[in-house]
Amino acid sequence: MEQLKHLEKQTPNGVELNLDALYQIAPSCFTEAVGEEGELRRVVDFDKLRLLLGDNAVENAPEVYDFTWVGKRNALCEAAAPINKTLRPCPEESMDWDTTQNLYIEGDNLEVLKLLQNSYMGKVKMIYIDPPYNTGSDSFTYVDDYSKTIDDYEVESGVKDDKGTRFCKNTNSNGRFHSDWCSMIYARLMVARSFLKEDGAIFISIDDNEEDNMKKLCNEVFGENNFIACVTWQRNYAPIALKKFFSESHEYCYIYAKNIDAFSMNLLPRTDKQNKDYKNPDNDPRGVWKVGNLTVGPAVEKQIYEIVGPTGKSFYPPSGYCWRFTKEKFEQMRNDNRIWFGANGNNSPVPKLFLTEVQNGVTPMTLWTFEEAGHNQIATRELRDIFGFSVFASPKPVQYIERFLHIGMDKNDIILDFFSGSATTAHAMIKLNSKDGGNRKFIMVQLPEETDEKSEAYKAGYKNICEIGKERIRRAGKKIKEESPLTTQDLDTGFRVFKCESSNYKDVVFAPKDYSQETLDLFVDNIKDDRTDLDLLFDCMLRWGVELSLPLSKTKVDGCTIHNVNDGDLVACFSGTVTENVIDAIAELSPLRVVFRDNSFEEAAQKMNLFELFKQRCGWTDEEVRNNVRVI
Asked: How far apart are CA 3 and CA 572, in angstroms?
């Protein structure tokens, strides 16, 4: 009876991940201790850790610089706590399910991030988020009262939807208005940081309501030394007359690197306006050029000398200035036809700056005007052009997000947006791929918040924000392909849809005296009745750390369906009675991991034989079989 235990199915424990990271730095601080149930646990010897840190270890210091708020400790606990949920695939709501590498995931973003952590830790080049600005009417999910159970909290406050998703509003009448917002963001940033590649970065939009708190949060989570820039964007081009004092025309985007020493950023593409001054009046074979400045201040005596032009006219630098180059360097440039005296040879000399020799792009500035990055009215118009009506009050323009994508990621990288909203980030990424032939991939995460029944979106049939986001990607991708049919043949405009829901496994909780044939049957088949093979396959991919965008194929052998993920990354069989022919077929795929369903075997001896067969067919050791073969 004791062997018939229901296996706990859940996400990685954040505490264990933190211990793993600390062990890489200071293994000498770890030891073993006996837990409450008599099991051996790895623990940290803080006395040793303090010795390693020397005077930098502070405990109960009377005065230290710290950013804190009510609920911060609870937010840390929530970030680290594992959950017992899964992501269920929805091919019927997806687009190009079999070929796309993009993901659209519906659910509480903190839960979704935890579920994705195994598969995407250290693989995302860029995160962009546009979180709630805490204006007093924002909606977000967060539960921070650990004196009650989560179920008690949800029953009392009525913050559960029909799928069990927690949902509440943070209004400015809340006595913990800023604290609740900080807790909500903090927990998500703590988990999201683990997704970034070592050379990756996060881009966070925010306005004046929580700008100061956001910077402090980012300094703590990402490190103050990893701050890259704060971009100020001119979101409005005209003042709002009804404002009492100032009409706000800007907001910010904070950029933090995972590791500033590894981070590099792309230049912005040059525009026609920036290139318009380049001409070629003397038909120089090196191409178009523009004039530079030959003088510089303050004056350096040895660089003040006479220059005689082609017509014999003499030139000296203005008072207080000198020539930019030494006389020897100037003569070299003159002999190389890099000095221009004007069409008639009488003008003051200037250097020729060739377009082919300037850097292939422009270093971004921290002030982005609406002319170069768009504004809110353009964004509203973009959505209206797609849907035929106004969908969101203040969306981001595609042009604005596209600039961030251009500087923040390369052509084959992954972008994660876990406050996806109307899916502007996905739209911008597809558009950028269509321009430069890139193969960037997106992961969009959005809570299925219901639309207002009075809104045009609701009247048009869009009951929640996710329905709007998915439809926007479909329509935007179709439009981009139609506008550039020759260059977008292979453009990936699809996405696989997943929904965050309860675990695939039945909850089996009872005392030994309650055993009966009915309860024993639960152990024989512990999978919920409404779950499919595809549900189980992707659940295994999540727990084994396999990316959800990988290609899938399947074959049938002896009535059993064999699922193959990315030519052997994971091979699974969940149906029928597994025969030796099935095992032979799986072994021929040279799998890295294999999983079966428990009810595929009538007797325990068959499972033991299964392990022996894989040792023979794949040449695996006992340890490799234990690591590579699972029965759920």
From this structure: 24
Sign of the torsion angle spanned by Cα atoms 318, 321, 322, 325: negative
Q: Is 425 left (phi over 0), alpha (psi -120 to 50) or beta?
A: alpha
pTM for the whole structure: 0.83
Q: What is the C-alpha separation between 76 and 91, in angstroms, rounded? A: 35
3-state SS class at 123:
coil
pLDDT in tens, 543-558: 999 999 999 999 999 9
68-87 pLDDT per residue, tens? 999 999 999 999 899 999 99
Burial 308-339 (b: 16+ CB within 10 A, else e): ebeeeeeeebeeebbbbbeeeebeeeeeeebb
Q: Give pLDDT, residue 464.
A: 95
Enumerate residues 6+ apart whose C-beta is below 8 A from 11.
82, 83, 85, 114, 115, 117, 118
Band of the pLDDT at 4, cuts 50, 70, 90? Answer: very low
Q: What is the mean pLDDT of residues 294-304?
A: 93
Residue that has been written with the tokens 């009448």 in this structure: 173
CA distance 97 to 89: 10
CB 143 within 8 A of CB 166: yes
Instruction: Answer yes or no: are the C-beta atoms of 199 and 264 closer than 8 Å.
Output: yes
CA dist 341 and 118 (Å) reads 65
Cα 273 to Cα 269, 276, 287, 358, 378: the distances in Å are: 11, 5, 18, 15, 21
511: left (phi over 0), alpha (psi -120 to 50) or beta: beta
